[in-house]
Amino acid sequence: MASVKIVYPDAKIFKSLFESMSKLIDEIRLEINENGLEIRAIDSANVALMSVSFPKESFSEFIINEKKSVGLNLSTLVKMMKRVRKEDRFEIEINEDEISLRLIGTTKREFKVNNLEVAIPEIPEGGIEFSTRLKVISETLKHALKDLELVGNQAIFEFDGNEKLMISSVGEGKYEMQLTKSSGSIIEVISGNPAKSTYSVEYLLNLLSLTKIADTISISFSSQMPIKLEIDLPTGGNISYLLAPAIV
Questions:
Q1: CATH class of the domain whose range is 132-243
Q2: Model pTM above 0.90
Q3: I need a labelling partner for 50 at 20 to 30 A (CA). Which of 61, 218, 220, 226 fits?
Q4: Inter-axis angle of helices 74-81 and 11-21, to 10 degrees?
Q5: Which of 206-220 are b and which e, b meaning 16 or more Cβ less than 10 Å from the residue's Cβ?
Q6: Which CATH architecture best describes the domain 4-114?
């Protein structure tokens, strides 16, 4: 009997997740217990932290006889997930140290991978209070990130405290994108105080693959403080990305 067998209904979610995490680190640890699946990763420069949580209710099948912690190579996972088809489910089965990853749709494809010794990331403790929290259209943020890449290496996020978020950059040229609630690009202003801060475009681009897996993204930030981007997945689960401000 397998120690762990879990099936997630949409393999594309994990495809985008692994692509994004591979920009930060080379290996990840999957923590699987009776509550679900968790992954936390921090880059070597301690600039960006990604936290992923899939509650057991988000899986179409969730069998666990003992909690497991397994290490996986992200390069291998990214290559494997290139084979994902639209209708595929993603299955993880663990028997002692043997790990089977399956893509299940009209066919069932199985990949066996090694359980690696991956160090537990040292995650800084302590919460952050954000003065501004907005929910925006994912597609809009995706276009902003692609535009920013053409101009400079730093992105300025500025909220006017009312309804306007300005995303801008100055480099080889100048770029500005204005998001407002009245235009529909901002879905909700959850809490809004004036705030302005600068972040690395390179690190923000790590989110590109995640902008296509949910319709909206929550953006939280304060002046000269980290920015937090959160995605609530329609099939269940949450992804958060915390990025330190750039040195200006």
A1: alpha beta
A2: yes
A3: 61
A4: 140
A5: bbbbbbebbebbbbb
A6: Box (3.70)
Band the pLDDT of 178: cuts 50, 70, 90. very high
Bridging pattern class, strands 195-200 and 216-221 = unpaired
d(CA 180, CA 126): 31
Residues contacting 17, CB < 8 A, separation 6+: 39, 52, 210, 213, 239
Q: Which tokens in the block code for residue 56?
A: 């057991």
The whole-number pLDDT of residue 125 equals: 56
pLDDT one-digit tens code per residue, 82-128 = 989 989 999 999 987 789 999 999 999 999 999 998 877 776 656 78
User: Contact 132/159 with Cβ under 8 angstroms?
Assistant: yes
Dist. CA 240–CA 225, nearest whole Å: 16
3-class secondary structure, 167: strand
Separation CA 55–CA 238 (nearest Å)? 9
- d(CA 123, CA 161) in angstroms, rounded, equals 31
Q: Would you state the structure tokens that stand for residue 50, as one six-digit string?
A: 């990604």
In 3D, which of 153, 154, 150, 146 has the Cα closest to residue 208? 146
Every domain of the chain with CATH number 3.70.10.10 lies at: 4-114, 132-243
Q: Provide CB contacts within 8 A for 190, sequence distance 6+.
A: 133, 134, 135, 218
Question: How far is the C-alpha of 89 from the C-alpha of 59, rounded, in Å?
Answer: 10
